[in-house]
Amino acid sequence: MANAWKRDKSTPFITSRNLLLLFPISFLLIFFFYFTKSSNSNPNLTNQISLRSLFPINSIQPFDCLKCPQSHPVIANLVEGVRYPFLYSLADLGSLPDKPHKNIVRMLKGKPFRRPDISVTIQDVLEKMRSKSNGYVVDVGANVGMATFAAAAMGFRVLAFEPVFENLQRICDGVFFNRVGDRVTLFEAAASDRLGNITFHKLVGRLDNSAVSATGAKLAFKSNEEIELQVPSIPLDHVIPESEQVLLLKIDVQGWEYHVLKGASKLLSRKVGEAPYLIYEEDERLLQASNSSSKEIRSFLNSIGYHHCTMHGTDAHCTK
């Protein structure tokens, strides 16, 4: 009876065994709390996590604006005359100070940026698809995002392909300015019909006219200095899962359109009602510089069911 109090005494909570059990549980709780807090406070991170599962490919990963060096100077403004307004940032500032970009002059006069024709076109086409807002818009040759942000401003999700780093920086500016980090996914690549690397020709001071073809790049601006660089190339069929709906495919790649279309054969071969509305630049001079032609493109499109094409300036609009 002298030692009875030892038997009746409750077992102490802090024991070596309990500590061993509590340690992993505490670690898991801390990890869960931190991860949840980080994801909720950073929509871009949440978007990247979902995209990795949505696009499970090893050949290319989405471009990370959060890790991209900030471009400078940043000259951005609202675009005039579009139904769904957005901002974009200039990549080509002109020959300062003698010949600044026309939009810089407009901004100094208190005017918004001149509306890009492609932005108006994109919004006009997508206006008829508002009921299908879960589908994707694919912007190949995104430049500084004038088509990308026109679609994102309407609530559509966009996959944008752009190989020129300086343009990617400006698109990242627009992602921040327009608060569309959860809707825009960038790929630092040239869409093509082959997976690998491709020689790309960049014009100094005219980033909007860079192209795969050296002739195509310098066709309109022969006096500009040309720089060769290697950029990743990837077929769209390697990026876009068959399970994902694509509403609109826009291609403006200075004559490389045929190769982009060939790399999207599976996407474009979808049946009527599931195949995307197609907009591509059909400039015969640029196409010939890349060893293709409008006739070759039309023949290919006919073979996969795109029998209805109309011209809007130098852009072809095609449907099944």
From TrEMBL:
Keyword line: Membrane, Methyltransferase, Transferase, Transmembrane, Transmembrane helix
SUPFAM superfamilies to which the protein is assigned, alphabetical: S-adenosyl-L-methionine-dependent methyltransferases
Domain of life: Eukaryota
Bilayer-crossing regions: 20-36
One GO-annotated biological process of the protein: methylation
GO molecular function: methyltransferase activity
Pfam families to which the protein is assigned, alphabetical: Methyltransf_21
Residues covered by the Methyltransferase FkbM domain: 139-306
InterPro entries, sorted: FkbM_mtfrase, SAM-dependent_MTase, SAM-dependent_MTases_sf
Protein name stated in the entry: Methyltransferase fkbm
Organism encoding this protein: Thalictrum thalictroides
